[in-house]
């Protein structure tokens, strides 16, 4: 079993692709970082965004929240994300809460009654709004009473009305002004002269491009998930089954559950628990963005390998009095980590896992850690020592069951590909 279940790093990486997100800090007057603007980047050496459309917004959201994990990108600071009209009017639903996000209304958005109504609802739900590249007379002044931030371009903006715009903002105590595109000492001095509280630009810091390896969810599974979620009486068990049998979908759901877990003392010990915590409506929103994202799928062999390990851990769990679902998830994380060429410990620190699962992945501790070691030893053809886990005499049978189950799970979607 060792060969098929443990593909080489080169083979593993062949089913992954790099994903990127740009991050530019926003500073206060004293030089402290208070937020980051997240930017679309198509490659690690991209200087400019290249896109400022719905695709770019969806890509930034998916990458930041589910590939990296938002806390890995911005920590506990705010993140500013450009959003297009479709997100502001509710045609596309935002799949995250308002806690850490500021929605930037692009200057290209036409402010009509539908946009005002949509932003009013977003503000009532707790979202903060920033008006990007604000220009008086563009129609965006209609949003001043709803906004929390106004961004003023001090490089190419019309500075002839700067004093008037600042005065209008100062009449609204909730508004903070972000001086953006500061590229010279003179522009920084101008921000100081007008007392603009937040600053952003090359004179202070250039954008940094963050890169990670991504195991992309199967297009078929993604569409299957969206179909299951679109039913009027969406079946939680079917949704869980689709997610649990796709390693990348599982990982994205676990990462997306980070924000939900942060608001409570609950820690995740299974994919099912993450599904319940996020809720079907939010998972539906993530699935829609994944369809827009629409990137290449992992190879069938890689999915089978990752799922076989997870299933074998589940099969062995009973011998160690470990919850089968926790064992499945721990095994799945190990498999996905191998595909992404990172350690399970690195992944564990990005996810809102129960202490038992984290300890097993980071330190190999506890009975669950023993399950992982038992499975790893069997995969590598090593002698399986009866440490925390009694060595089952039917371990080979359990392994064959795991391989058969994972092969069926991956093949189940194959007809839809034709």
Automatic annotation (TrEMBL):
Query: What InterPro entries does this protein map onto?
Result: dGMP_Pdiesterase_EAL/HD-GYP, EAL_dom, EAL_sf, HDOD, RNase_Y/CdgJ
| Pfam families in the record | EAL, HDOD
**What sequence ranges are listed for the domain EAL?**
1-221
Q: Where is the HDOD domain?
A: 215-399
State the superkingdom.
Answer: Bacteria
The record's SMART domains line, in alphabetical order, gives: EAL
Q: Which residues constitute the signal peptide according to the record?
A: none
Q: SUPFAM superfamilies from the xrefs?
A: EAL domain-like, HD-domain/PDEase-like
Q: Which PANTHER family match?
A: CYCLIC DI-GMP PHOSPHODIESTERASE CDGJ, PTHR33525
What is the protein name given in its UniProt record? EAL and modified HD-GYP domain-containing signal transduction protein
Q: Upper taxonomic classification of the species?
A: Bacteria, Bacillati, Actinomycetota, Actinomycetes, Micromonosporales
